[in-house]
Amino acid sequence: MASPRKTADVVVIGAGAAGMMAASTAGQRGRGVVLIDHYGKVGEKIRISGGGRCNFTNVHATHRNFLSRNPDFCRSALARYTPRDFIALVEKHGIRYHEKTLGQLFCDDSALQIIELLKKECAGGGVEWRQPCAVQGVGREENGFIVATDQGEIAASSVVVATGGLTVPKIGATPFGYRLAEQFGLAVVPPKPALVPLSFDPELLARYGDLSGVSLDATASCREGRFREALLFTHRGLSGPSILQVSSYWQQHGAAEPIHIDLLPGSDVRPWLASQRRSKVLLSTLLAERLPKRFAQQWCGANGFDKPLAELSDRLLEEAAQALGDWKVQPSGTLGYNKAEVTLGGVDTRGLSSKTMEAAAVPGLYFIGEVVDVTGHLGGFNFQWAWSSGYAAGSAA
Ligand SMILES: Cc1cc2nc3c(=O)[nH]c(=O)nc-3n(C[C@H](O)[C@H](O)[C@H](O)COP(=O)(O)OP(=O)(O)OC[C@H]3O[C@@H](n4cnc5c(N)ncnc54)[C@H](O)[C@@H]3O)c2cc1C
To answer: 346 CA to middle of ligand 1, Å?
Structure first.
């Protein structure tokens, strides 16, 4: 026998960061909310985030920390629900936290505390959970929507889609949100893995693969994305914060152009090399004063620079100086969704209201969080987008 149809004001699909924020916000406004997730555990991405301590926001978050086809889209939501607002919630729940670096706030103890916070806020709004519960489809009805699930149908005037991106598929990621958007005629900017390690082709790997584990302070850039943070060699290519950050821009611009790496940021390389022009010391030995020795040797060897400075031709010395400030590296690809922290692209913001996240052409249908074409830098920005966009939809749905 078919289960009886249930009625709710709002159905939220996806009980991750954005979905729980939207559900609790709508529930606390007095809306009857059903929150559905197909996965067995609550808030898995939050649990594994920030090395288990959840980098839950960044005090410096502005629209400039996000990539999107429409970089201004996130402004309104971020202004209406700021990092300060989420910090106030964290403090209300007595969660101790600290700033690690560059405005990044982490829990002192555990990311599980953020999940508990969100569950309590949902309970405070009387949110009804259905988890695990598979959504079979969403259809339009005269006064709203019918959400078909493996636990029966739910009729609702609003549906909030918070199914996230495609990263880490083994903990519940699906393309459901993109398909639903397309079903309702919304455009989707093709998704790609971002904040992701980059791979080398066999030739580059033969040159630099055995540097795996070596890290250095570098500035990595691709077009307008420019980040000075650690760079790490891996057995597959490059990683570390500066590379993860720049990977998003590399992906956004078609993954076709090289990444530019300043190996000695803040150093005036030419006068330094010129001052040692007559030295019998190998260039790699000199560079090892400012770079990891293994890297200096490998890099000089691979590029034909490993000679005593006095024996390097003017042309080669100039080439070395140039490459130290702008080492051009062409990655062969990324390590994909299993290793990516976020998904670039998603539901095209041109079809959504920046104030409420509601689809302009489908009143009552909302998209929030990572499923939307708004992708943050590394450092707490992606969660801030989940909170801000979740709050925006939860205040309107
Ligand atoms: C390893 C890792 C570490 C990270 N660390 C940080 C960090 O420290 N700081 C930061 O800001 N960001 C971090 N991020 C990014 C951040 O986790 C995400 O941007 C954020 O979780 C997105 O929130 P969301 O609610 O949109 O999606 P998600 O948190 O991914 O939630 C989506 C939910 O939808 C559910 N779902 C999917 N498909 C369906 C379906 N068909 N039916 C029903 N439910 C469905 C999923 O089970 C999931 O519960 C990290 C990401 C990873 C992978």
So the answer is: 14
CA 289 to each of CA 211, 268, 303: distance values in angstroms, whole numbers, following the listed order? 18, 14, 19
Checking if the pLDDT of 9 tops 90, the result is: yes
Q: Verify whether ligand 1 is closer than 6 Å to residue 393 (CB atom).
A: no
Share of the chain above pLDDT 90, in %: 97
Is 368 buried (19+), middle (13-18) or exposed (0-12) by CB count in 10 A? buried
pTM of the model: 0.97
* Cβ atoms within 10 Å of 98's Cβ, excluding its own: 10
Residue 309 to residues 86, 229, 348, Cα–Cα distance (Å): 55, 29, 54
Rg (CA), the chain: 24
CA distance 340 to 189: 18
Say what the pLDDT of residue 330 is.
Answer: 98
Res. 340 pLDDT band, cuts 50 70 90: very high
User: Rounded mean pLDDT of the chain?
Assistant: 97
Centre of ligand 1 to C-alpha 165, Å, is: 7
